[in-house]
Amino acid sequence: MSFPPEPPPGVPGALALRSPRLVTANEADDYLPFLTDALELPAGGSVLELGCGRGSVLVRLAEWGYRATGVDDSAAMLELARAAAARRGVDLDLRLQGIPDLTERGVFDGALALDFGTYSDADNASVIRTVADALKPGGRLVFGTCNPYYWAREPRTEHRSIEGTDVIRTFSFDFMTGCVASRVRCILPSGERKAFPPAHYRAYTVPELRTLTSNAGLADLRIYGEDEGGRPRPDRPLDTLRTPFFHCVALRPVRGEAGEGI
Is pLDDT above 80 for 70? Predict the structure, then answer.
């Protein structure tokens, strides 16, 4: 089980990103109101992020008084997270380990898996089971995933500038595997061109997401779309043809069988 490959040498740290979402700290700020409402964390509660990367979300949660733990299998990404935490004067519990090595059971008030879908189907299911086991009863998991109904319609190319570097990202859909393929090219301020190795994100349909969460013992799955700026909109009906990404929330029940809620 491993994330998509790291970026090529010479690419700025802010571009060392493996997810199609949450590229900058400002975008993380836009995401926080939805995240805290969805998790319903108690004051000073504990939150776990699987695949925390450079820690943009965890740093903000720590600033808001939550106890934040991040797991990632990239030492380079964790160094970026530690540097971000030091700049903001907060403490993070950052761990260099694979998700299967997470041994906690029933200790976290909430959990995040914002890059969900980066593994094989079997390993993605294992991720959901692992985080479900790590949650306290009544805890919630928030995870993001590509929407296959959107990406299957047509390829898409994005062009943006980050830290003075031009970033061109092309997305296409592989119908045989149900994956969104991402290919990224960068033009550095020096004019040098770099290319990321291709990455693939499994895009699950709504019935598949319900099966994944219920098989892991989670209940009350809610799936939301987003607005034109990429912000989750739980106040709008889900439009599966217009939202590139699903924002999902599931509950570890306090009692009863998966699917019954609390």
Answer: yes
Q: Which one has a higher pLDDT value, 57 or 197?
A: 57
Asked if residues 159 and 167 have their Cβ atoms less than 8 Å apart, the reply is yes
Q: Looking at the structure, do residues 24 and 117 belong to the same domain, yes or no?
A: yes
Whole-number CA gyration radius for the chain = 18
Is residue 250 packed enough to be buried (19+ CB in 10 Å), middle (13-18) or exposed (0-12)? buried
Residue 43 maps to a domain:
yes
- Looking at the domain assignment, is residue 4 inside a domain? no
**CATH number reported for the structural domain that contains residue 161 in this entry:** 2.20.25
Model pLDDT for residues 2-43, shown as the tens digit of each residue = 334 444 545 544 444 445 444 456 677 888 889 989 999 999
Same domain, 65 and 79: yes
User: What pLDDT is stored for residue 13 in this prediction?
Assistant: 44
Q: What percent of the chain has pLDDT over 90?
A: 56
Examine the domain organization and report whether 90 and 158 are in the same domain: no
Q: Which of 61, 163, 177 is nearest to 109 (CA)?
A: 61
Mean pLDDT, the chain, whole residue set: 85
Provide the domain limits for residue 71. 13-148+204-251
- How far is residue 223's CA from residue 145's CA, in Å, rounded to a whole number? 10
Which residues, 6+ apart, have CB-to-CB distance to 210 below 8 Å? Answer: 221
Q: Which of 5, 1, 7 is nearest to 163 (CA)?
A: 7
Distance, CA of 85 to CA of 180 (rounded, Å): 32
